[in-house]
Amino acid sequence: KVDIFVGNLAYNTTEQEIAEAFSAVGEVVGVRIVLDRDSGKPKGFAFVEYADKATALSAIRNLDGTELNGRSLRVSYSNNSSLRSYAEEVGEKITDSYQSGGKTLDAVIESMPPPEAYDVLANMKQLIEKDPAQARVLLRAHPALGPAL
Fold first, then answer.
1. Strands of 42-50's sheet, edge to edge?
2. Which candidate among 31, 40, 83, 88 keeps its CA 20 to 30 Å from the CA of 12?
3. Cβ-contact 7, 72 below 8 angstroms
4. For each of the chain's 149 residues, which pLDDT tens digit applies?
5. Environment class of residue 39 by beta-carbon count within 10 Å: exposed (0-12), middle (13-18) or buried (19+)?
6. Residue 77 · residue 68 · CB < 8 Å
């Protein structure tokens, strides 16, 4: 089983809606919307699981930038997936979602409405405070994130 990261979700998006949208490229094995530990509310991102790497890679390639519930999705590798090395093995060059559509991460954040940009910053601060090791993993995997924030 292979999971992918799905970001920029509307807070009211359900696991069923995500599964339906992502089944366009193949059978979805599972969907997990990440919730805030304290409030129990969705954090605006999820992980979608496929049975094989080829289908997961197809989802990144074909669904990044598509719209769901009025939001342009960011679809990329998850940090705990071996999908990135598989993509290299099969000769695929897929740009991380922070460069999606030719935009840099700082341009994407700059184009967000202020409340949404504040949520991103607040969530990053919360991650750093609660799980510094995971924050380090995230920042190492996406080096443009730190300067953009």
1. 28-35, 42-50, 2-7, 74-77
2. 83
3. no
4. 899 999 999 999 999 999 999 999 999 999 999 999 899 999 999 999 999 998 998 899 889 889 999 999 999 988 766 888 888 788 776 555 444 455 566 777 777 788 888 888 888 888 889 888 888 877 776 667 777 77
5. exposed
6. no
Please give the structure tokens belonging to residue 25: 């490229």
Beta-carbon contacts of 74 under 8 Å, excluding residues fewer than 6 positions away, are: 5, 6, 7, 8, 64, 65, 97, 98, 100
Within 10 angstroms of residue 45's Cβ, the number of other Cβ atoms is 16
Q: Would you state the torsion angle of the CA atoms of residues 81, 85, 91, 92, taken in this order, to the nearest 10 degrees?
A: 30
- Residue at 34: amino acid letter: V
Helix (H, G, I), strand (E, B) or coil at 25: coil
Whole-structure pTM value: 0.64
Q: Given the structure tokens 């009211």, which residue do they identify?
A: 12
